[in-house]
Amino acid sequence: MKKLFGFLSIVFLFSFTVEAQRVDVPSGYRGFLEYSTSYCPIDGLTAIELSTTHGCYFTDNAFIGMGIGFEGSGDWFLMPIFVTLKYNFSYDSPCTPTAQVRLGSYLGDDIGVCGDVAFGLRFGSRRNLAFNLMLVCSLFQPIDYGYYLTYDDYGGYYDRRWVDYPSGFGIRFGIEW
User: Fold this and answer.
1) 3-state secondary structure of 65
2) What is the pLDDT of residue 153?
3) CA-based nearest residue to 132, from 69, 86, 92
4) d(C-alpha 103, C-alpha 87), whole Å
5) How far is the first Cα of the chain from the last one, in angstroms, to the nearest whole number?
6) For residue 35, what pLDDT is reported?
């Protein structure tokens, strides 16, 4: 964790020193490589995700694209496939507030729907490169129920319960080119 924090600090310092007054306004095709960690406070599970998104800015501020990722922990593995919408609020400075919404489905140990909402900062430069740091709230919900047999005093019956994967909060770090 200390190494990750040190790396992020160096990236932020670099983004502020690269000609702070001139910022590239993105247009056309863009690609993202993003790494995130999440924590589910209900079951105490943590997960990591590595994803890539490709699409285009259809206005100076709004991006739409499709992506694929790999998410998991020691016990499970998921491969989310999603559509993402991203909005950058301003280009007056190299540090820009940004919001992102992802919706899609996932494959892996199970099949289901997923989505997340992220808010954070975009650190741009005039070299057609930017860094993103966002807080994320995510949801992974299986399509199938898990069926478990339980017994009472009068015989057995089936009880329906969801199979849970971490839906929680985290931090996402990304590079945009």
Assistant:
1) strand
2) 57
3) 86
4) 15
5) 26
6) 96
Q: What is the pLDDT tens value at each position of the chain, 177 positions in all?
A: 666 666 656 655 555 554 445 566 677 899 999 999 988 777 777 889 999 999 999 888 899 999 999 988 877 788 999 999 999 998 777 889 999 999 999 888 778 888 999 999 999 877 778 999 999 998 877 766 555 555 555 655 545 444 455 578 999 999 998
> Which residue, among 22, 101, 23, has the nearest Cα to 63 in the 3D structure?
101
DSSP for 86-148 reads EEE---SSSEEEEEEEEEEEEEESS-EEEEEEEEEEEEE-SSS-EEEEEEEEEEEEESSEEEE
CATH code of the domain in which 68 resides: 2.40.160.20
Phi and psi angles of residue 155, each rounded to the nearest 5 degrees, phi first: 135, -175
Total domains present in the chain: 1
The pTM for the full model equals 0.73
Q: What tokens does 155 get? A: 């015989």
Residue position matching structure tokens 């998104």: 53
CB 141, CB 163: distance < 8 Å: no
Cβ 8 vs Cβ 16: under 8 Å: no
Q: Are 84 and 67 in contact (CB under 8 A)?
A: yes
Phi-psi region of 28 (alpha: psi -120 to 50; beta: other; left: phi over 0): left
